[in-house]
Amino acid sequence: MSFSDTFQENDQKKMKQMEAYRSDDDGQALTTDNALKLTSTDDSLKAGERGPTLLEDFHFREKITHFDHERIPERVVHARGFGAHGYFELYESMSEYTKADFLQVPGSKTPVFVRFSTVVGSRGSADTVRDVRGFATKFYTESGNYDIVGNNIPIFFIQDAIKFPDLIHAVKPEPNNEIPQATTAHDTFWDFVVNAPETAHMVMWAMSDRAIPKSFRMMEGFGVNTFRLINAQDKARFVKFHWKPLLGVHSLMRDEAQKLSGKDPDYHRRDIWDAIEQGNYPEYEFGVQMIEEDQEFDFDFDLLDPTKLWPEELIPVKIIGKMTLNKNVDNFFAETEQVAFCPANIVPGIDFSNDPLLQGRLFSYEDTQLTRLGGPNFREIPINRPVAPVHNNQRDGMHRMAIHPGPVSYFPNSLAQNSPSPVPEEEGGFAHYAQRIDGHAVRARSESFRDHFSQATLFWNSMSAAEKEHIVDAFHFEVGSVKDVNLKQRVVDMFASVAPELAVQIAAGIGAKPPAQAVPKSTQASSPALSQENTIKTARTRKVAILLESGFCTVSVRNMLAELKAAGAVGETVSSSLSEISGKDGTPLKPDKDLTTSGALLYDAVYVPGGSDHVNVLKQNHNARSFINEALHHAKTIGASDEGAELLQATDAAAFLPDLRDAQAAPQIFQGVVVVNGGSTLQPFCTAFVDQLAMHRHWSRAN
After folding, report:
1. Higher pLDDT, 245 or 658
2. Enzyme catalytic residues
3. 363-374, pLDDT tens digit by residue?
4. Domains delineated in the chain
5. 365 labeled binding residue
6. Which of 40, 76, 303, 548 lies at a C-alpha separation of 20 to 30 Å from 352?
7. 488 near 510, Cβ under 8 Å?
8. 115 annotated binding-site participant
């Protein structure tokens, strides 16, 4: 069987599993859970029309009982999530490094399910809060399910899993008043930080743009912990896993993210749902960083320290495949809410390291599902079932689905000829890596874990000027929300060990004193891979608002929409209402959105075409002027052709307009504002506008 046939079989097997539990109610008769057909579900059974409801009304009791038990406990962390189906395709064989079956044959495909999430907030919190994002991937392989349970940040706050309950207790809403929701802007979190300096590196990432991604489709993923790859000769290498989005890594601004929480709290999940429905499938290349075991101590950081990354300049990321998400879920609860990930879900060819955070995760993820999903049989839920066959002597328990005939449920046995029986390693059985272990049982931490600041400084050094401004702004908001004055000062003093100039700027914004003594930087090094300024920049899937009223230039709109479509971008027409309008040539148009329910926050750029009548109406509309100002403030691309520039002149964008007399010959560009005056140059204008759109932001113009 070819690898393409294998993928088709596995993908169909997974979909068949899901299909077996699908219930299509369209056109069907209404029944109880016991399939009894019902004549009514609007009124309970009563003793007379105005009398009491009767206890014998089994339909009422079944319906209300089910409703009362519909909710299950939400995840303690990563409660708010969103998932999608897809597949992973291997670029090149990894047989030199691992015997994992799904990493052997170039071109082979493996079904996957991915769940993106926030860490701190509850299920009802907003998508765009400042937080770490989960990036968990389940591979349905021939050898069983394999999970990479990662985040969008390559490191973590703590070094040892025993401190995880303390971290989460500190970052969650404070227990006395359950305030604040889904934010680190409060005393208990920063109290934990200053008393646990190992958090310094992760806090830098959390205060950076990485903590407010533009989209799940524009977000990196990392396995966080150190694992091992094991090949057929039992040679092991240390490995870290990476997901790199083909749209690049891009973020929101703090002000933009906070406003989006109110404008559209479902912004991220809506974005990825719509992209998949429109065929703009999210794509992520899969990469590995590998280190030989005999190189374990060759670096100035400990490979097992989860608060440390492996700089890509030292250990390059080898790209080995690509994941494509091409199908939305059919039912959010059945799939996204019930999917169960665990880093202990591995396959032959992949094994663990002694990373102390990972060691705790191996237990914790399994343990939490027992409460959430009602016992040990949660793997029988369709979304969690492997495509590989399952045979063991596990029996009974809550929600058992499998029906096992016969009397044998133990091993060894003779009644069933020792079935099911163990499989030798050479035939695909899993064998733990035989690492040498020699030491005393101690509650202690390696001295190699004691450096808490050098990589935090590396991260700061690697940021562009705009990214550094955003980090300082984040500290001002987050630490500025802290009530305890002494705590604020301790934050300043702690981050002086990261970068003295950072501490000085933090102090100035939160009313604290500059650090008493400047601490020399522990490193002058930088890593270009850490800055989002060095990411892929493309106009693909970007959304552009085209502001219109009756009297707009039809030719201009038609040309811009064609140019956007050719670049893989999306143009949406926005007017003061959803009523039909017409171009100055009489062409009718029904707007896609209106200014009341839409806004610049939901777009990557804005374009105003010519047409004096429509521009005069827009100039009198406060929402239209605010639309331009919002886009300007958030450093987005703004374009106008012909009379459209008059709307820009009525806003804060006037300061960035080039001389329109010069725009007669060619489009003029100034810090992401593009204008042209003259239909003969419309095509070059559209091209210039799309080029500016691809840049994501124009930070020199941000204010």
Report:
1. 245
2. 78, 151
3. 999 999 999 999
4. 81-384 (2.40.180.10), 457-533 (1.20.1370.20), 537-701 (3.40.50.880)
5. yes
6. 76
7. yes
8. yes
